[in-house]
Amino acid sequence: MIRIPNSAVIFALLLLSYAVLVHTALSCTSAVDCTNEVISNQSKYVSCVDGSCVCDLCFTADVTGMCTIANCYSYNYFTDECTNTAPRWLAALIMSILIGGTGAANFYISRYKIAISQLMLFCIILTLPCIICCVYCCTGCDCGDVCRVCGLVINLILAILLLVVNLCLASWWIADLVIFSLNDRKDGNGCSLVM
């Protein structure tokens, strides 16, 4: 026969009683039970549904039952209007299609780390042909065979680098198109894009 220590039983009962306390803190019989303090007519943003506190669309309930404005919404207290502040999906998709290589769609949805990385790749693509052209022009003069061979090797390396960067940016652009068309990327605040 296995004997369970009394301390383990007491600990388990304490955990269960805490779980019950947390559950009953959000239970209610009317909307007034859902708020500890009725601040600026807070009770009009919450209702009691099936014994649980439920907040209106713009609000979310915290552990005390108070309704606070949800992350992706703004609320006008004077007109009682709720507005989703997340960026528009269609605008992000169009930006991704037309100027996706510049990171504009990711700047629009406040995903700055991704956007800056895309913009840096785009700038490399713009500057590498200029560098290749300058190296070619500088080595095109009559400075000897060694200078000319060295310039051709540098041009070859830069051309390969340009090809690799172009392939990276093109694959990134295609991946962004798929992600934005499926509306599978959240904005910088963690909100889903508005369809």
Automatic annotation (TrEMBL):
Signal peptide limits: 1-24
Membrane spanning residue stretches: 89-109, 121-141, 153-175
Keywords recorded for this protein, A-Z: Membrane, Signal, Transmembrane, Transmembrane helix
Stated name of the protein: Uncharacterized protein
Organism, scientific name: Oopsacas minuta
